[in-house]
Amino acid sequence: MGLPHDRSHLLWTDAPTARFIESIDRWTKTIMDDDPSGALAIPIIQTAAKIIAKESGILAGRPVLNRLFANNCHNSHLKWNISEGDEFQVGDVILTIEADGTEILSVERAAMNLITRMSGIATKTSKWVKILDEVAIAATRKTLWGVLDKWAVHVGGGLTHRLDRSDAPMIKENDFALSTFSLNEQMSKAALNSDFLVIEVTSMEHALTVAREWKNNMQENETTELLTLLLDNMGPEGSLDVVRQLETEGLRDGLVLEGSGGVQTSELDRWSNSGMDVVSSGALTMDSSPIDMTMLMEADR
C-alpha cells in the first residue's frame, strides 16, 4: 500500500523543485547572515578543500551544498565522491572543492553545519528504517530547518509527512471542539481538497467513532480514498489493541494507521509489531546527532 506520507515528489523530480530551491536559499542565507565569516581580508589564493568523514554515516545535503557554493563561490568546482543517500566510512573524502580560498572560508562553517546535520538525520532515519522493517517511519512537522530536515529524512529512507499545514489537512481535538460541522461534514470537506487527510485520535473510543464515520463516508460518496488515522500517544500496545478492534468490527479497510507520540529508539521493536502502517516521530529531526566531519584546505601554489 502506497502511503500518502511520502511528499518527496514536492521536493524533487529530475532536479530540485522550486519549493526545495527556495527553502535551500532561505536557510543558507539565514545561516550565512548569522555568521559573516567572509568579512576578514585574506589574500586571494586558489585552494583545494576536502570534506573528510570522521565517523561513518549516510550522506545527505549534496543539493544544498551545490547551491551554497554556486551562490557564494565564483568559478568553484565540486567533486563528489559519495552519492546522496550512500554510506561513507571514517576517512572517506566526501567532497573536494576547488575555489578561491577566501570564498571557501566564507562558507566553510555554513557548509559544515549543513552537511553534518543533514547526514546525521539521514543516518538515524536509516537505522530506524532497518529496525522497524515493514512499518514505515515518517518525520513530523517538528523540525529545526524545515524542508531541509524533511529532505534528510527522505534520503535516509523515511517519509517526509506533511511539508506544511496546507499540504494535508489534519483534524485534531481542537478542530472537533471548535467546528460547527459534524465529523462527517468535516471529513467530506477536507477530503475534497487533498489526497492526504489525517485525523488525530487519542483513545480507543475516539478511533472507533472516526473509523465508523469514515466507512459511512466511503459508502455514501462511493470513494476509495484513504484516511490516515493518527493514534496519538497510545503506545505500541495500545495501538495494537485498536488495530484488533478495527479488524473485529470490519473497519480496517480504507485506513492508513499511524502511531505517534514519544517514539524512541528503545521502543522500535515493539512498534514493528504494533500493526501500524507508519510510525511518525519528531525525534528524527529534533534529536539526531550531527555526523563528525572536517574540512581541510590546501593552497594551490
- Separation, N- and C-terminal Cα atoms: 58 Å
Instruction: State the shape.
Output: elongated
Q: In the residues, how many domains can be counted?
A: 2
Calculate Rg over CA atoms.
22 Å
What do the pLDDT scores average to? 91
Following the backbone from N to C, one meets helices and strands in this order, namely HEEHEEEHEHEHHEHEHEHEHE
CATH class of the largest domain: Alpha Beta
Total strands:
12
- Helix count, DSSP H or I runs of 4 or more residues: 10
Largest sheet: 6 strands, parallel
Commentary on this structure:
- This protein folds into two domains: about 10-125 and about 290-300, Quinolinate phosphoribosyl transferase, N-terminal domain (Aldehyde Oxidoreductase, domain 3, Alpha-Beta Complex), CATH 3.90.1170; about 130-285, TIM Barrel (Alpha-Beta Barrel), CATH 3.20.20.70.
- It is about 40% helix and about 20% strand.
- The chain has helices at about 20-35, 60-70, 100-130, 145-155, 175-180, 185-190, 205-220, 235-250, 270, 285, and strands at about 45-55, 55-60, 75-80, 85-90, 95-100, 135-140, 170, 195-200, 225-230, 255-260, 280, 295-300.
- The mean pLDDT is about 90.
How would you concisely characterize the structure shown here?
The protein has helices spanning 18-34, 62-72, 101-132, 146-155, 173-178, 183-192, 204-221, 235-248, 268-271, 283-286, and strands at 46-53, 57-58, 77-80, 87-88, 93-100, 136-138, 170-171, 197-201, 227-232, 255-260, 278-280, 293-299. With 301 residues, the chain is of the alpha/beta class.
Task: Give a quick set of tags describing it.
alpha/beta, Aldehyde Oxidoreductase, domain 3, 301 residues, 4-stranded antiparallel beta sheet, 10 helices, elongated, 19% strand, 6-stranded parallel beta sheet, 12 strands, TIM Barrel
